[in-house]
Amino acid sequence: MLSRPSRSVPVARDPDAPRVRRDPRQLARLLAFARPYRGIFAVGVIATLVSSGLNLVFPLLFGRLIDASFLRVGSTDTGPLDRTVLALIGIFALSSLFAAAQSYLLARVGAGVVADLRRALFSHLLTLSPRFFADHKTGDLTSRLTADVGTVQTVTSTALAQLAAQTVSLVGAVVLLITTSPRLSLFTLAVIPLVIGTAVLIGRRIRRVSREVQDAVAGANASAEEAISGVRVVQSFTAEGIERERYGRGVLASFRAALKRARLQALMGGTLSFLTFGSLAALLWYGGRQVMTGGLTPGNLVTFLIYALQVGGTVASLTGIFNQFQEALGASGRIFELLDERSDLPVPASPAPLPRAQGRVTFDRVSFRYGDAPVLQDVRFDVPAGQVVALVGPSGAGKTTLVSLIPRFWDVTAGELRVDGRDVREYAPEELRAQVGLVPQETLLFSGSVEENIRYGRPDATAQEVEAAARAANAHDFIAAFPAGYATVVGERGVKLSGGQRQRVAIARALLKDPRILILDEATSALDNESEALVQSALERLMRGRTTFVIAHRLSTIRNADRILVMDGGQVVADGTHAELMAAGGLYRDLYDLQFRREQEARAELA
Questions:
Q1: Each residue of 39-74: b (16+ CB within 10 Å) or e?
Q2: pLDDT tens column, 577-595
């Protein structure tokens, strides 16, 4: 396929890249994913509110317990004390029950939201064009699917409910503070604006640094994914040190960003802790003086202190929730950056039907550019249904790009490409691609079984149809020789199979799909002679009755093609049969003679 030169993705955010907007409305978009779980979420919120409300009763009863114990010294009537303790135990039991219900229900919502969001993001990625994937590292995309989505999980479940619960606790505790002691309440509430201001100020910086952490982790993941997927190349060039250093730079960048965030979080935590406990110390001093003068009972002071602690704890919890929302804004920006990405291959509003293509392909003055670089220029030819067309030419002539336009992996930038007389842009991409089969040079198999890979293009195929396709592809014998047969797991990218075996499984996959248009992109160039003979025999069966485009590394394999197109510099410079082109001379004759001489020299060396 046409690919753009790979770019080095920085481990930290590229300063020249557009900034992702941290719009608070992104949180509303996130919460939209919670709509299917709104019933469970509502019950969880109610349980949270009830638990929080019950916790407000505890200080009042505890104060009464203190007074029942200390103000009735010498009395033998333990009734008030017994009733207060029983009430406390009942409150604790109910609060624990509702807290457990809240924990489970909101965890259920969070897990569901994350699963739905990952499915939506992955499904959307599959709709984007190859151009998008040429511009983005796989590791960065998988990081957004995993780490970033995980970051927003808390916000879409527990954080929102906790926000409501802590708000109820704060309002209730403040009201009860004022009811218990108006003077002490003014003293306590004076600290709250200072706490909130500190949280907001430092929280904004935490949000920015959180985005830096996410970008750095994504960059490191991208480096690791490249090295792992290309580990054979890495090891063959003994480049382990280079990859360690590259990944190490990414990890170091994420480590430094994480430390920066940790310092900010520690600063905020320490500051809030000092403000909270410092104010409590002052409160104890002032309240103790009031107890000594008879303005408060010991129980009222204890009740007030517990409510004050609740207010301080609630404010601290709210600042923590605020930080979670800040981190979620950074992560959601990266998520919605992908969800808002649109394919550069527009789908027609009313696609033309293509139930079963005949297979006629027409290039009418087609040109294609990648950015500012021209790749194809004014390409014109018509291929009747069922014809076998070979494409030859030097490296970089545009052969692979040309065939990539047929299944509409890219759109032409000028001219028109037609299948069965209609511009390919008039068809739905899925229907068009269902009519096109591709057997590339480097076959990609998925990490399931042999049968699952063959069935990939037609999941509803029967076991008999799978076996028939494998037999036609000369693959049944080696598959049957495996102990697990068709259930044999091929490993990631089919690594457990040889090159020839992978290629024959790919041919069986294409046979089962039964496409009308077939693209063979140097399908035998990397095989030994024995494997090539088996694959070539399978390819001949695959090509029967189909419009076929063959890009061949060895010109000797395309001599029997109905037609040969010679490409050079993004243009078709010659068109004819092998005999016609050999007689006419020119580039094809030069390429053929050069390759023939090389093959002769190779045979002589072997002899």
A1: ebbeebbbbbbbbbbbbbbbbbbbbbbbbbeeeeee
A2: 888 888 888 888 888 888 7
Confirm if 221 and 139 have CB atoms less than 8 A apart: yes
CATH architecture of the domain with range 25-339 = Up-down Bundle (1.20)
Q: What is the DSSP string of 70-109?
A: HTTTT----HHHHHHHHHHHHHHHHHHHHHHHHHHHHHHH
Of 575, 535, 584, 165, nearest to 393 by C-alpha is 575
Please report, for the chain, the start and end positions of each structural domain, with discontinuous segments joined by +.
25-339, 361-435+515-606
Identify the CA nearest to 289 among candidates 172, 181, 373: 181
- Tokens representing 350 are 């009313």
137: left (phi over 0), alpha (psi -120 to 50) or beta: beta
Closest CA to 502 of 516, 517, 488: 488
Domain 361-435+515-606: CATH architecture, name and number where available: 3-Layer(aba) Sandwich (3.40)
HEC secondary structure over 136-160 = CCHHHHHHHHHHHHHHCCCHHHHHH
The pLDDT tens digits for 533-549 are 777 777 777 778 889 89
Cβ-contact 213, 261 below 8 angstroms = yes
pLDDT digits (tens, 9 = 90+) for 73-92: 555 666 766 777 787 788 88
CA distance 493 to 178: 68
> pTM for the whole thing?
0.64
> Of the candidates 200, 500, 497, 483, which has an alpha carbon nearest to the alpha carbon of residue 323?
200
Is residue 538 within 8 Å of 473, Cβ to Cβ? Answer: yes
